[in-house]
Design brief:
With 285 residues, the chain is mainly α. The protein has 13 helices and three strands. A three-stranded antiparallel beta sheet has the order 1-3-2, with helices on one face.
């Protein structure tokens, strides 16, 4: 039963979580008018309507935003939802913002250049032989650019697929500046970890992807007013992939996987989510 429809997703998510905290299961459905709260149990409609009137009268009451924090049960922002199979190419393209597209194109250009430039391209973009002024020799970009290096078709396809979905979600729901900042910090830290674990012969955007996963997963718990939620199946799949990577089962297909890079990226993303989410939560309060 449709209880109330909001024109914006942020208050709709807050009220949806608040009803759940009161024991009234519901779901959020997007329609032509906005975001509708649909109650699962029609017998609770009268109570839910009364709560909706109270919410509309005072939507900034902290108890509504606190509910998301307490329940941990949040409406999911679609990433790979079931109906995307029929999605048009134009709609898929729009899911990636300008920064998302730019990074994807750069990765493709570097991948193509590796075929023609080979060792010269790798030498210009790979991690330095040591973390020192003498080793870097002014080429400080090399602390970041290994993220653009990919060494196989499956490698780049997998990374860009998830970059487009997760990076695009950050850029759409927050900003290109936030995505850029997250990418730089995650790449800088995870590249350093990978160098310490494997030496300078590594590359790929996957550590950044895992960092964005950690950020998108945890941020809404730190800041319940966030307008996005990551589907649980995505988190389970990616964490399962990370765990299986440590077993070596994927090495015959993808080569040596940088598992420490994935794990460090994930942890950096979680840390950034907690830091930025709690800061924003205090601002809302």
């Amino acid at each position: 039963m449709n209880i109330v429809t909001f024109s914006q997703k942020r208050p709709a998510l807050a009220f949806s979580d608040y009803l759940r905290s009161l024991g009234m299961p519901n779901r959020l459905e997007e329609n032509g008018e906005g975001f509708a709260i649909v109650l699962d149990d029609a017998s609770q409609a009268e109570r839910a309507m009364a709560e909706a009137q109270s919410f509309v009268a005072n939507p900034e009451d902290p108890r509504y935003w606190q509910a998301s924090w307490q329940t941990g049960k949040v409406q999911k922002e679609a990433v790979y939802q079931a109906d995307t199979e029929g999605e048009s190419g134009g709609a898929w393209w729009q899911r990636g913002g300008m920064l998302t597209r730019t990074v994807a194109v750069l990765c493709l250009l570097v991948y193509a250049a590796l075929w023609f430039g080979g060792e010269d391209v790798f030498r210009a973009l790979s991690y330095p032989s040591a973390i020192s002024v003498d080793a870097v020799q002014g080429q400080w970009w090399r602390l970041l650019t290994p993220a653009f290096l990919h060494f196989g078709l499956l490698h780049i396809a997998f990374n860009l697929l998830w970059w487009w979905e997760l990076g695009g979600l950050v850029e759409r729901e927050q900003s290109a500046g936030r995505l850029l900042g997250l990418t730089l910090v995650i790449a800088l830290v995870s590249n350093g970890v990978q160098f310490l674990s494997y030496g300078s012969n590594f590359g790929g955007l996957s550590a950044v992807v895992y960092g964005l996963l950690g950020y998108l997963w945890i941020y809404p718990y730190a800041d319940p007013a966030a307008t996005f939620r990551l589907r649980g199946v995505i988190v389970v799949f990616m964490l399962g992939w990370l765990a299986l990577g440590y077993t070596g089962i994927f090495d015959p297909i993808f080569g040596n996987i940088s598992n420490d890079g994935h794990l460090s990226g994930l942890l950096v993303g979680v840390a950034l989510a907690l830091l930025l989410g709690l800061v924003n939560r205090q601002r809302h309060a």
